[in-house]
Amino acid sequence: MQKWEYCAIGPIKIGEGGWRGESPQKISFTSAGFETTPIQKDEASEADNIAYEIATLGKDGWELVSCGDVGNILVGVGHIYHYLYFKRARE
């Protein structure tokens, strides 16, 4: 049976002029919970950092499988943010 691993990118706040990141992270889901890694490359804009991370995930075999808006308990009640969800076959 095929096994999968999953990750997400977020939170991404969508505002005027396109995407605005709110401390976006790569979130890796494991059987022990989750691990977060900040998305920050040099002095690039948040949007460029997010685009770079998406491209890197694609090169590493990750497939975008879903996206959605959710309330983010890590950032604060009442805030709605966008997340991108990825999966890839586990070896």
Can you describe this structure?
This protein has 91 residues and is of the alpha+beta class. It has 1 helix and 5 strands. It has one helix spanning 46-59; strands at 4-15, 18-30, 33-38, 63-71, 80-89. A 5-stranded antiparallel β-sheet has the order 3-2-1-5-4, covered by helices on one side. It is globular, with a radius of gyration of 13 Å. The termini are close together. The mean pLDDT is 82.
Write out key terms for the chains shown:
91 residues; 5-stranded antiparallel beta sheet; single chain; 1 helix; alpha+beta
Summarize the structure.
By secondary structure, this protein is an alpha+beta fold. Helix content is 15%, strand content 55%.
Strand order of the largest sheet: 3-2-1-5-4
Strand content: over 45%
* Secondary-structure content class: alpha+beta
Rg, nearest Å: 13 Å
Task: Give helix % range.
Answer: 10-25%
Approximate shape? globular
Tally the helices: what do you get?
A: 1
Major beta-sheet overview: 5 strands, antiparallel
Order of helices and strands: EEEHEE
Poorly predicted ranges: none
Q: Whole-Å distance between the termini? A: 12 Å
**What is the average per-residue confidence, as pLDDT, rounded to a whole number?**
82
Count every beta strand, where a strand is a DSSP E run of 2 or more residues. 5
How is the secondary structure organized here?
Blueprint: E1 4-15, E2 18-30, E3 33-38, H1 46-59, E4 63-71, E5 80-89
Antiparallel strand pairs: 1-2, 1-5, 2-3, 4-5
